[in-house]
Protein backbone atom coordinates (compact mmCIF):
# COMPACT_ATOMS: atom_id res chain seq x y z
CA UNK A 1 0.00 0.00 0.00
CA UNK A 2 1.43 3.36 -1.02
CA UNK A 3 1.23 6.22 1.45
CA UNK A 4 0.63 9.49 -0.34
CA UNK A 5 0.92 13.02 0.98
CA UNK A 6 -1.91 15.30 -0.16
CA UNK A 7 -0.47 18.82 -0.42
CA UNK A 8 -3.92 20.37 0.14
CA UNK A 9 -4.96 18.34 3.21
CA UNK A 10 -1.33 18.22 4.39
CA UNK A 11 -1.81 14.63 5.48
CA UNK A 12 -0.15 11.34 4.46
CA UNK A 13 -2.88 8.83 3.66
CA UNK A 14 -3.27 5.35 2.13
CA UNK A 15 -3.35 4.93 -1.65
CA UNK A 16 -7.01 3.79 -1.55
CA UNK A 17 -8.08 7.40 -0.97
CA UNK A 18 -6.43 8.49 -4.22
CA UNK A 19 -6.87 7.95 -7.94
CA UNK A 20 -3.95 8.02 -10.33
CA UNK A 21 -4.46 10.47 -13.18
CA UNK A 22 -1.54 9.91 -15.55
CA UNK A 23 1.52 11.89 -16.57
CA UNK A 24 1.70 15.46 -15.28
CA UNK A 25 2.57 18.75 -17.01
CA UNK A 26 0.96 17.87 -20.35
CA UNK A 27 -0.11 21.24 -21.71
CA UNK A 28 -3.32 21.55 -23.69
CA UNK A 29 -2.78 23.20 -27.08
CA UNK A 30 -3.63 26.92 -27.26
CA UNK A 31 -4.78 26.72 -30.86
CA UNK A 32 -6.29 23.24 -31.32
CA UNK A 33 -7.45 23.76 -34.90
CA UNK A 34 -3.89 24.52 -35.99
CA UNK A 35 -2.44 21.32 -34.50
CA UNK A 36 -0.97 18.79 -36.92
CA UNK A 37 -1.73 15.06 -36.70
CA UNK A 38 1.74 14.50 -35.22
CA UNK A 39 1.09 17.08 -32.50
CA UNK A 40 -2.27 15.49 -31.66
CA UNK A 41 -0.63 12.06 -31.49
CA UNK A 42 1.99 13.45 -29.11
CA UNK A 43 -0.61 15.22 -26.95
CA UNK A 44 -3.14 12.39 -26.79
CA UNK A 45 -1.12 9.20 -26.83
CA UNK A 46 2.66 9.45 -26.46
CA UNK A 47 3.81 9.22 -22.84
CA UNK A 48 7.19 9.31 -21.12
CA UNK A 49 6.63 5.96 -19.39
CA UNK A 50 9.76 6.77 -17.40
CA UNK A 51 11.68 4.05 -15.60
CA UNK A 52 12.83 6.09 -12.61
CA UNK A 53 11.57 9.49 -11.41
CA UNK A 54 8.19 10.26 -12.97
CA UNK A 55 6.07 13.43 -12.84
CA UNK A 56 2.45 12.40 -12.43
CA UNK A 57 -0.98 13.56 -11.35
CA UNK A 58 -3.06 12.15 -8.52
CA UNK A 59 -6.51 13.06 -7.26
CA UNK A 60 -7.51 12.88 -3.62
CA UNK A 61 -10.92 11.44 -4.53
CA UNK A 62 -11.98 10.32 -1.05
CA UNK A 63 -10.69 13.45 0.62
CA UNK A 64 -10.57 17.00 -0.68
CA UNK A 65 -11.26 15.81 -4.23
CA UNK A 66 -8.49 17.96 -5.71
CA UNK A 67 -5.85 17.13 -8.29
CA UNK A 68 -2.17 17.53 -7.40
CA UNK A 69 1.18 16.54 -8.84
CA UNK A 70 3.80 14.13 -7.56
CA UNK A 71 7.29 12.88 -8.32
CA UNK A 72 7.55 9.12 -7.82
CA UNK A 73 10.28 6.64 -8.68
CA UNK A 74 8.58 3.98 -10.84
CA UNK A 75 11.14 1.32 -9.90
CA UNK A 76 10.91 1.64 -6.10
CA UNK A 77 7.46 3.37 -6.01
CA UNK A 78 8.95 5.89 -3.54
CA UNK A 79 7.43 9.39 -3.60
CA UNK A 80 10.04 12.16 -3.71
CA UNK A 81 7.56 15.03 -3.50
CA UNK A 82 3.95 16.05 -3.96
CA UNK A 83 2.95 19.60 -4.85
CA UNK A 84 -0.15 21.59 -5.73
CA UNK A 85 -1.50 21.76 -9.27
CA UNK A 86 -0.21 24.82 -11.11
CA UNK A 87 3.07 24.97 -9.21
CA UNK A 88 6.22 24.65 -11.29
CA UNK A 89 8.01 21.33 -11.66
CA UNK A 90 10.45 20.78 -8.79
CA UNK A 91 14.13 20.52 -9.75
CA UNK A 92 14.77 16.79 -10.10
CA UNK A 93 18.49 16.94 -9.33
CA UNK A 94 17.79 18.75 -6.03
CA UNK A 95 15.09 16.24 -5.08
CA UNK A 96 17.20 13.18 -5.84
CA UNK A 97 20.33 14.70 -4.31
CA UNK A 98 18.40 15.70 -1.20
CA UNK A 99 19.23 12.46 0.60
CA UNK A 100 15.66 11.18 0.45
CA UNK B 1 19.83 -31.91 -28.62
CA UNK B 2 17.73 -35.03 -28.31
CA UNK B 3 14.51 -35.15 -30.27
CA UNK B 4 11.82 -36.39 -27.92
CA UNK B 5 9.99 -39.61 -28.87
CA UNK B 6 8.58 -42.66 -27.14
CA UNK B 7 11.70 -44.72 -27.80
CA UNK B 8 14.24 -42.37 -26.19
CA UNK B 9 11.79 -41.61 -23.36
CA UNK B 10 11.71 -45.35 -22.57
CA UNK B 11 15.50 -45.67 -22.90
CA UNK B 12 16.09 -42.70 -20.59
CA UNK B 13 13.57 -44.03 -18.10
CA UNK B 14 15.51 -47.31 -17.94
CA UNK B 15 18.77 -45.44 -17.39
CA UNK B 16 17.23 -43.47 -14.51
CA UNK B 17 16.84 -40.18 -16.45
CA UNK B 18 20.54 -39.46 -15.92
CA UNK B 19 21.61 -39.40 -19.55
CA UNK B 20 19.43 -36.64 -21.01
CA UNK B 21 21.46 -34.11 -22.95
CA UNK B 22 20.92 -30.35 -22.56
CA UNK B 23 17.49 -28.97 -23.50
CA UNK B 24 19.05 -26.19 -25.56
CA UNK B 25 22.56 -24.76 -25.71
CA UNK B 26 23.23 -21.54 -23.77
CA UNK B 27 25.03 -19.45 -26.40
CA UNK B 28 27.52 -16.56 -26.23
CA UNK B 29 27.03 -13.70 -28.68
CA UNK B 30 28.74 -13.60 -32.07
CA UNK B 31 29.91 -10.28 -33.53
CA UNK B 32 27.14 -10.08 -36.12
CA UNK B 33 23.68 -11.45 -36.86
CA UNK B 34 21.07 -11.06 -39.59
CA UNK B 35 18.38 -10.54 -36.95
CA UNK B 36 18.69 -9.71 -33.25
CA UNK B 37 15.53 -10.18 -31.20
CA UNK B 38 15.37 -8.30 -27.89
CA UNK B 39 13.44 -10.27 -25.27
CA UNK B 40 13.44 -14.06 -24.81
CA UNK B 41 9.82 -14.47 -23.85
CA UNK B 42 7.30 -16.53 -25.80
CA UNK B 43 6.81 -13.79 -28.41
CA UNK B 44 10.55 -13.26 -29.06
CA UNK B 45 11.52 -16.94 -29.06
CA UNK B 46 8.48 -17.76 -31.18
CA UNK B 47 9.49 -15.16 -33.75
CA UNK B 48 12.98 -16.73 -33.87
CA UNK B 49 11.43 -20.18 -34.38
CA UNK B 50 9.20 -19.05 -37.26
CA UNK B 51 12.03 -17.01 -38.83
CA UNK B 52 14.15 -20.16 -38.93
CA UNK B 53 11.40 -22.60 -39.83
CA UNK B 54 9.33 -20.66 -42.35
CA UNK B 55 11.71 -18.06 -43.73
CA UNK B 56 15.05 -19.90 -43.61
CA UNK B 57 16.69 -17.11 -41.56
CA UNK B 58 18.82 -18.89 -38.95
CA UNK B 59 21.59 -16.36 -38.25
CA UNK B 60 19.46 -15.01 -35.41
CA UNK B 61 20.14 -14.16 -31.76
CA UNK B 62 17.53 -13.79 -29.04
CA UNK B 63 18.81 -11.66 -26.16
CA UNK B 64 17.34 -11.35 -22.69
CA UNK B 65 18.31 -9.30 -19.66
CA UNK B 66 17.35 -12.16 -17.36
CA UNK B 67 16.65 -15.81 -17.88
CA UNK B 68 14.56 -17.35 -20.60
CA UNK B 69 10.83 -16.86 -20.11
CA UNK B 70 11.44 -15.03 -16.82
CA UNK B 71 9.27 -12.04 -17.69
CA UNK B 72 5.57 -12.03 -18.41
CA UNK B 73 5.72 -15.43 -20.20
CA UNK B 74 6.31 -17.02 -16.80
CA UNK B 75 4.06 -14.62 -14.90
CA UNK B 76 0.62 -14.92 -16.49
CA UNK B 77 -2.48 -17.01 -15.85
CA UNK B 78 -2.01 -19.06 -19.08
CA UNK B 79 -5.49 -18.41 -20.42
CA UNK B 80 -6.01 -18.74 -24.16
CA UNK B 81 -9.10 -17.42 -25.97
CA UNK B 82 -10.00 -15.43 -29.08
CA UNK B 83 -13.52 -14.10 -28.44
CA UNK B 84 -12.63 -10.48 -29.24
CA UNK B 85 -15.23 -8.12 -30.66
CA UNK B 86 -13.46 -6.36 -33.51
CA UNK B 87 -12.64 -8.05 -36.81
CA UNK B 88 -8.92 -7.19 -36.63
CA UNK B 89 -8.52 -8.63 -33.12
CA UNK B 90 -10.65 -11.68 -33.85
CA UNK B 91 -8.45 -12.55 -36.84
CA UNK B 92 -5.19 -12.09 -34.90
CA UNK B 93 -6.20 -13.99 -31.76
CA UNK B 94 -7.98 -16.73 -33.70
CA UNK B 95 -4.85 -17.20 -35.81
CA UNK B 96 -3.06 -17.80 -32.51
CA UNK B 97 -5.71 -20.26 -31.32
CA UNK B 98 -5.35 -22.12 -34.65
CA UNK B 99 -1.60 -22.43 -34.05
CA UNK B 100 -2.08 -23.48 -30.40
CA UNK B 101 -3.99 -26.59 -31.49
CA UNK B 102 -0.91 -28.50 -32.75
CA UNK B 103 1.89 -26.40 -31.28
CA UNK B 104 3.24 -29.34 -29.24
CA UNK B 105 3.68 -31.39 -32.43
CA UNK B 106 5.24 -28.46 -34.28
CA UNK B 107 7.79 -27.86 -31.50
CA UNK B 108 8.33 -31.51 -30.47
CA UNK B 109 7.68 -30.26 -26.94
CA UNK B 110 4.56 -30.74 -24.85
CA UNK B 111 3.15 -27.26 -24.15
CA UNK B 112 0.19 -28.96 -22.43
CA UNK B 113 -2.41 -27.05 -24.42
CA UNK B 114 -5.77 -27.96 -22.98
CA UNK B 115 -8.91 -26.69 -24.74
CA UNK B 116 -11.00 -26.95 -21.63
CA UNK B 117 -13.12 -23.93 -22.60
CA UNK B 118 -13.43 -20.38 -21.29
CA UNK B 119 -16.79 -19.48 -19.77
CA UNK B 120 -17.61 -15.80 -19.27
CA UNK B 121 -20.42 -15.24 -16.80
CA UNK B 122 -23.18 -12.68 -17.23
CA UNK B 123 -24.61 -11.28 -14.01
CA UNK B 124 -26.90 -8.50 -15.22
CA UNK B 125 -28.95 -7.44 -18.21
CA UNK B 126 -26.13 -5.38 -19.65
CA UNK B 127 -23.75 -8.37 -19.48
CA UNK B 128 -26.32 -10.55 -21.22
CA UNK B 129 -26.81 -8.07 -24.06
CA UNK B 130 -23.13 -7.34 -24.54
CA UNK B 131 -22.08 -11.02 -24.41
CA UNK B 132 -24.77 -12.01 -26.91
CA UNK B 133 -23.48 -9.28 -29.19
CA UNK B 134 -19.98 -10.72 -28.79
CA UNK B 135 -21.25 -14.22 -29.58
CA UNK B 136 -22.93 -13.01 -32.80
CA UNK B 137 -19.92 -10.94 -33.83
CA UNK B 138 -17.55 -13.84 -33.16
CA UNK B 139 -19.66 -16.30 -35.13
CA UNK B 140 -19.72 -13.93 -38.12
CA UNK B 141 -15.91 -13.91 -37.91
CA UNK B 142 -15.77 -17.71 -37.72
CA UNK B 143 -14.66 -17.58 -34.06
CA UNK B 144 -16.15 -20.29 -31.87
CA UNK B 145 -18.37 -18.78 -29.13
CA UNK B 146 -21.80 -19.85 -27.85
CA UNK B 147 -24.44 -18.55 -25.45
CA UNK B 148 -25.30 -20.82 -22.49
CA UNK B 149 -28.29 -20.67 -20.16
CA UNK B 150 -27.57 -20.77 -16.39
CA UNK B 151 -28.40 -24.50 -16.33
CA UNK B 152 -26.01 -25.17 -19.22
CA UNK B 153 -23.33 -23.15 -17.40
CA UNK B 154 -23.83 -25.36 -14.33
CA UNK B 155 -23.53 -28.49 -16.51
CA UNK B 156 -20.28 -27.23 -17.98
CA UNK B 157 -18.81 -26.04 -14.68
CA UNK B 158 -20.33 -27.96 -11.73
CA UNK B 159 -18.68 -25.92 -8.92
CA UNK B 160 -20.68 -22.92 -10.10
CA UNK B 161 -23.68 -21.85 -8.04
CA UNK B 162 -26.64 -20.71 -10.15
CA UNK B 163 -28.84 -19.96 -7.18
CA UNK B 164 -31.08 -16.95 -7.80
CA UNK B 165 -30.25 -15.78 -4.28
CA UNK B 166 -26.51 -15.45 -4.92
CA UNK B 167 -25.12 -11.96 -4.51
CA UNK B 168 -24.13 -12.01 -8.19
CA UNK B 169 -26.65 -14.40 -9.79
CA UNK B 170 -25.58 -16.13 -13.02
CA UNK B 171 -27.90 -15.10 -15.85
CA UNK B 172 -26.03 -17.07 -18.50
CA UNK B 173 -22.60 -17.22 -20.04
CA UNK B 174 -20.59 -17.06 -23.24
CA UNK B 175 -18.54 -20.21 -23.79
CA UNK B 176 -15.62 -20.57 -26.16
CA UNK B 177 -15.02 -24.33 -26.23
CA UNK B 178 -11.80 -24.14 -28.27
CA UNK B 179 -10.25 -21.81 -25.70
CA UNK B 180 -8.32 -23.07 -22.69
CA UNK B 181 -4.90 -23.03 -21.06
CA UNK B 182 -1.31 -24.09 -21.77
CA UNK B 183 1.80 -24.56 -19.67
CA UNK B 184 3.46 -21.13 -19.93
CA UNK B 185 7.06 -22.15 -19.16
CA UNK B 186 6.83 -24.99 -21.66
CA UNK B 187 5.89 -22.48 -24.36
CA UNK B 188 9.14 -20.56 -23.81
CA UNK B 189 11.21 -23.76 -23.51
CA UNK B 190 9.55 -25.38 -26.53
CA UNK B 191 10.13 -22.37 -28.76
CA UNK B 192 13.71 -22.06 -27.45
CA UNK B 193 14.49 -25.70 -28.22
CA UNK B 194 12.90 -25.58 -31.64
CA UNK B 195 14.69 -22.34 -32.57
CA UNK B 196 18.05 -23.48 -31.16
CA UNK B 197 17.83 -26.77 -33.07
CA UNK B 198 17.79 -24.69 -36.27
CA UNK B 199 20.83 -22.68 -35.23
CA UNK B 200 19.35 -19.69 -33.38
CA UNK B 201 21.55 -18.38 -30.52
CA UNK B 202 19.67 -17.81 -27.26
CA UNK B 203 21.69 -15.50 -25.02
CA UNK B 204 20.54 -15.04 -21.44
CA UNK B 205 21.69 -12.44 -18.88
CA UNK B 206 22.60 -10.08 -21.70
CA UNK B 207 20.64 -6.84 -21.28
CA UNK B 208 20.31 -4.58 -24.30
CA UNK B 209 21.30 -1.09 -23.13
CA UNK B 210 20.81 0.76 -26.42
CA UNK B 211 19.88 0.36 -30.05
CA UNK B 212 22.55 1.95 -32.25
CA UNK B 213 21.73 3.54 -35.62
CA UNK B 214 23.81 4.23 -38.75
CA UNK B 215 24.31 7.76 -40.07
CA UNK B 216 21.54 7.14 -42.65
CA UNK B 217 19.17 6.40 -39.76
CA UNK B 218 18.92 2.64 -40.28
CA UNK B 219 19.61 0.14 -37.54
CA UNK B 220 23.27 -0.75 -36.91
CA UNK B 221 22.99 -3.13 -33.99
CA UNK B 222 22.58 -3.26 -30.23
CA UNK B 223 24.76 -2.30 -27.29
CA UNK B 224 24.56 -5.03 -24.67
CA UNK B 225 26.00 -6.05 -21.33
CA UNK B 226 28.31 -8.32 -23.37
CA UNK B 227 29.42 -5.67 -25.88
CA UNK B 228 28.19 -4.35 -29.22
CA UNK B 229 26.40 -6.80 -31.51
CA UNK B 230 26.01 -5.81 -35.16
CA UNK B 231 22.67 -6.65 -36.75
CA UNK B 232 20.96 -6.06 -40.10
CA UNK B 233 17.58 -6.10 -38.38
CA UNK B 234 16.55 -5.61 -34.75
CA UNK B 235 13.17 -6.79 -33.46
CA UNK B 236 12.06 -5.63 -30.03
CA UNK B 237 9.68 -7.85 -28.07
CA UNK B 238 10.38 -6.66 -24.55
CA UNK B 239 6.87 -6.16 -23.05
CA UNK B 240 6.93 -3.62 -20.19
CA UNK B 241 10.49 -2.51 -21.02
CA UNK B 242 9.79 -1.87 -24.71
CA UNK B 243 9.46 1.89 -24.38
CA UNK B 244 12.75 2.09 -22.44
CA UNK B 245 14.61 0.11 -25.14
CA UNK B 246 12.93 1.87 -28.08
CA UNK B 247 13.66 5.31 -26.66
CA UNK B 248 17.37 4.65 -27.25
CA UNK B 249 16.58 4.49 -30.99
CA UNK B 250 14.58 7.75 -30.73
CA UNK B 251 11.28 5.95 -31.23
CA UNK B 252 8.65 7.14 -28.75
CA UNK B 253 5.72 4.82 -28.21
CA UNK B 254 2.18 5.27 -26.89
CA UNK B 255 2.83 2.82 -24.05
CA UNK B 256 2.46 2.91 -20.29
CA UNK B 257 3.83 0.12 -18.09
CA UNK B 258 1.74 -1.19 -15.21
CA UNK B 259 2.23 -4.08 -12.77
CA UNK B 260 -0.28 -6.88 -13.33
CA UNK B 261 -0.67 -9.42 -10.56
CA UNK B 262 -1.80 -13.02 -10.28
CA UNK B 263 -1.84 -15.56 -7.49
CA UNK B 264 -2.18 -19.30 -6.92
CA UNK B 265 -3.72 -21.28 -4.09
CA UNK B 266 -2.37 -24.37 -2.37
CA UNK B 267 -2.74 -27.41 -4.68
CA UNK B 268 -5.93 -29.45 -4.34
CA UNK B 269 -7.49 -32.40 -6.17
CA UNK B 270 -9.15 -31.66 -9.53
CA UNK B 271 -12.31 -29.66 -8.88
CA UNK B 272 -12.41 -27.01 -11.54
CA UNK B 273 -12.81 -28.26 -15.13
CA UNK B 274 -12.61 -25.06 -17.18
CA UNK B 275 -11.69 -21.36 -17.08
CA UNK B 276 -14.34 -19.03 -15.64
CA UNK B 277 -14.25 -15.27 -16.01
CA UNK B 278 -16.62 -12.79 -14.49
CA UNK B 279 -16.20 -9.28 -15.80
CA UNK B 280 -18.80 -7.63 -13.60
CA UNK B 281 -17.15 -8.89 -10.42
CA UNK B 282 -13.67 -8.88 -11.97
CA UNK B 283 -12.59 -12.41 -11.21
CA UNK B 284 -11.06 -15.11 -13.33
CA UNK B 285 -9.99 -18.53 -12.25
CA UNK B 286 -8.83 -21.92 -13.50
CA UNK B 287 -7.02 -24.92 -12.04
CA UNK B 288 -3.51 -25.87 -13.12
CA UNK B 289 -2.40 -29.44 -13.74
CA UNK B 290 -0.49 -29.21 -10.45
CA UNK B 291 -3.81 -28.59 -8.70
CA UNK B 292 -3.36 -24.93 -7.80
CA UNK B 293 -6.21 -22.54 -8.44
CA UNK B 294 -4.78 -19.89 -10.74
CA UNK B 295 -6.39 -16.52 -10.11
CA UNK B 296 -5.85 -13.42 -12.18
CA UNK B 297 -5.89 -10.02 -10.55
CA UNK B 298 -5.79 -6.58 -12.14
CA UNK B 299 -3.28 -3.87 -12.93
CA UNK B 300 -2.34 -1.29 -10.35
CA UNK B 301 -3.76 2.15 -11.08
CA UNK B 302 -0.30 3.73 -11.35
CA UNK B 303 2.55 3.02 -13.78
CA UNK B 304 5.42 1.09 -12.25
CA UNK B 305 8.35 -1.18 -13.08
CA UNK B 306 8.44 -2.74 -9.62
CA UNK B 307 7.30 -6.28 -10.67
CA UNK B 308 5.41 -6.52 -7.37
CA UNK B 309 2.14 -4.64 -7.37
CA UNK B 310 0.02 -3.51 -4.44
CA UNK B 311 -1.87 -5.68 -1.96
CA UNK B 312 -5.21 -3.81 -2.19
CA UNK B 313 -5.72 -5.41 -5.61
CA UNK B 314 -5.12 -8.92 -4.26
CA UNK B 315 -7.66 -8.30 -1.52
CA UNK B 316 -10.19 -7.11 -4.10
CA UNK B 317 -9.54 -10.13 -6.32
CA UNK B 318 -9.84 -12.71 -3.57
CA UNK B 319 -13.05 -11.04 -2.38
CA UNK B 320 -14.44 -11.31 -5.92
CA UNK B 321 -13.53 -14.99 -6.21
CA UNK B 322 -15.21 -15.87 -2.93
CA UNK B 323 -18.35 -13.98 -3.99
CA UNK B 324 -18.69 -16.22 -7.06
CA UNK B 325 -17.28 -19.43 -5.54
CA UNK B 326 -17.95 -19.48 -1.80
CA UNK B 327 -16.55 -23.06 -1.71
CA UNK B 328 -13.06 -21.57 -2.11
CA UNK B 329 -13.40 -19.16 0.80
CA UNK B 330 -11.25 -21.25 3.16
CA UNK B 331 -8.47 -22.03 0.71
CA UNK B 332 -5.03 -20.67 1.47
CA UNK B 333 -3.14 -18.73 -1.14
CA UNK B 334 0.37 -19.96 -1.86
CA UNK B 335 2.08 -17.17 -3.77
CA UNK B 336 1.42 -14.01 -5.73
CA UNK B 337 3.56 -12.22 -8.25
CA UNK B 338 3.55 -9.29 -10.65
CA UNK B 339 4.66 -8.71 -14.22
CA UNK B 340 5.12 -5.40 -16.02
CA UNK B 341 2.67 -5.06 -18.88
CA UNK B 342 2.82 -2.43 -21.61
CA UNK B 343 -0.59 -0.94 -22.22
CA UNK B 344 -1.62 1.05 -25.32
CA UNK B 345 -4.37 3.69 -25.32
CA UNK B 346 -6.72 1.46 -27.38
CA UNK B 347 -5.72 -1.78 -25.56
CA UNK B 348 -4.59 -3.38 -28.84
CA UNK B 349 -1.06 -4.46 -29.66
CA UNK B 350 1.48 -2.71 -31.87
CA UNK B 351 2.98 -5.28 -34.20
CA UNK B 352 5.12 -4.40 -37.17
CA UNK B 353 7.49 -1.87 -38.66
CA UNK B 354 8.72 1.37 -37.07
CA UNK B 355 9.88 4.67 -38.63
CA UNK B 356 13.48 3.34 -38.30
CA UNK B 357 14.66 1.15 -41.17
CA UNK B 358 15.42 -2.37 -39.97
CA UNK B 359 13.76 -1.88 -36.59
CA UNK B 360 10.58 -3.82 -35.76
CA UNK B 361 8.42 -3.86 -32.67
CA UNK B 362 5.97 -6.29 -31.09
CA UNK B 363 4.50 -4.65 -27.98
CA UNK B 364 1.44 -3.21 -26.32
CA UNK B 365 -0.16 -6.56 -25.47
CA UNK B 366 -1.18 -5.15 -22.12
CA UNK B 367 -2.71 -7.76 -19.86
CA UNK B 368 -3.43 -10.35 -22.56
CA UNK B 369 -0.29 -11.23 -24.49
CA UNK B 370 0.15 -14.90 -23.59
CA UNK B 371 -2.84 -16.14 -25.56
CA UNK B 372 -1.55 -14.42 -28.69
CA UNK B 373 1.97 -15.86 -28.47
CA UNK B 374 2.02 -18.17 -31.53
CA UNK B 375 -0.07 -15.85 -33.73
CA UNK B 376 1.91 -12.74 -32.86
CA UNK B 377 5.26 -14.52 -33.23
CA UNK B 378 4.23 -16.09 -36.54
CA UNK B 379 3.10 -12.84 -38.17
CA UNK B 380 5.97 -10.87 -36.57
CA UNK B 381 8.49 -13.27 -38.15
CA UNK B 382 6.82 -12.66 -41.53
CA UNK B 383 7.13 -8.89 -41.10
CA UNK B 384 10.80 -9.15 -40.06
CA UNK B 385 11.68 -11.49 -42.93
CA UNK B 386 9.83 -9.65 -45.71
CA UNK B 387 9.98 -6.10 -44.33
CA UNK B 388 6.24 -5.77 -44.90
CA UNK B 389 3.09 -6.31 -42.82
CA UNK B 390 1.41 -9.71 -42.72
CA UNK B 391 -2.28 -9.42 -43.73
CA UNK B 392 -3.26 -10.31 -40.15
CA UNK B 393 -0.96 -7.85 -38.35
CA UNK B 394 -1.35 -5.03 -40.91
CA UNK B 395 -3.98 -3.09 -38.89
CA UNK B 396 -1.82 -3.17 -35.74
CA UNK B 397 0.50 -0.38 -36.86
CA UNK B 398 2.19 2.31 -34.83
CA UNK B 399 0.78 4.88 -37.28
CA UNK B 400 -2.79 4.26 -36.17
CA UNK B 401 -2.28 6.63 -33.25
CA UNK B 402 -1.63 9.40 -35.76
CA UNK B 403 -4.27 8.48 -38.36
CA UNK B 404 -6.90 7.69 -35.73
CA UNK B 405 -7.67 4.20 -37.06
CA UNK B 406 -7.66 2.73 -33.55
CA UNK B 407 -8.71 -0.83 -32.75
CA UNK B 408 -10.58 0.17 -29.65
CA UNK B 409 -10.69 -2.99 -27.59
CA UNK B 410 -10.52 -0.71 -24.54
CA UNK B 411 -14.21 -0.05 -25.03
CA UNK B 412 -15.10 -3.37 -26.64
CA UNK B 413 -13.06 -5.86 -24.62
CA UNK B 414 -14.95 -8.80 -23.28
CA UNK B 415 -12.98 -8.14 -20.12
CA UNK B 416 -10.18 -5.89 -18.95
CA UNK B 417 -7.70 -7.90 -20.97
Describe the structure.
The complex is a heterodimer of chains A (100) and B (417). By secondary structure, chain A is of the alpha+beta class. Chain A has one domain (3-97): Folate-binding fold, CATH 3.30.2270. In chain A, 14% of the residues lie in helices and 33% in strands. Chain A has helices at 37-44, 92-97; strands spanning 3-6, 11-14, 19-23, 53-59, 67-73, 79-84. The mean pLDDT of chain A is 94. Chain B has two domains: 27-109 and 183-255 and 346-412, FAD/NAD(P)-binding domain, CATH 3.50.50; 118-180 and 257-343, D-Amino Acid Oxidase, subunit A, domain 2 (D-Amino Acid Oxidase, Chain A, domain 2, 2-Layer Sandwich). Helices cover 29% and strands 24% of the residues of chain B. Chain B is built from twelve helices and 18 strands. Chain B has helices spanning 6-14, 42-55, 87-101, 103-107, 125-140, 150-156, 184-197, 242-247, 311-324, 373-386, 400-403, 409-412; strands at residues 32-38, 60-63, 79-80, 118-122, 146-148, 172-176, 180-181, 201-203, 208-213, 219-224, 227-236, 256-265, 275-278, 283-287, 293-299, 333-343, 350-353, 359-363. In chain B, strands 1, 2, 8, 9, 10, 11, 17 and 18 form an eight-stranded mixed sheet that branches. In chain B, strands 5-6-4-13-14-15-12-16 form an eight-stranded mixed sheet. Chain B has a two-stranded antiparallel ribbon with strand order 3-7. In chain B, strand 10 (219-224) and strand 11 form a beta hairpin. The radius of gyration of chain B is 21 Å and the shape is globular. The chains are: A alpha+beta (100), B alpha/beta (417).
Amino acid sequence: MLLIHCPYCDETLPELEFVYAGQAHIVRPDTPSEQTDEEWEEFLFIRENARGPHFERWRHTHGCGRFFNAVRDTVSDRFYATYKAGETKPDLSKLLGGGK
Amino acid sequence: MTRFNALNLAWNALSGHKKWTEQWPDAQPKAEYDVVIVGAGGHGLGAAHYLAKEHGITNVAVLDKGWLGGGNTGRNTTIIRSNYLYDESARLYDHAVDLWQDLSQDLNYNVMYSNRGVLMLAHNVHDVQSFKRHVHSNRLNGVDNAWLTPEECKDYCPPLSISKHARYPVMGGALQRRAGTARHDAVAWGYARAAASRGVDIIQNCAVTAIRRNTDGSVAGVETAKGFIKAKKVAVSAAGYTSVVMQTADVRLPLESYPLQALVSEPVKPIFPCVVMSNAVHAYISQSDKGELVIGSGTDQYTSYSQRGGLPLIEHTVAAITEIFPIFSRMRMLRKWGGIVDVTPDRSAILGKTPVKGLYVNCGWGTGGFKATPGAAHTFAWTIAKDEPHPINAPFTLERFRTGRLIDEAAAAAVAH
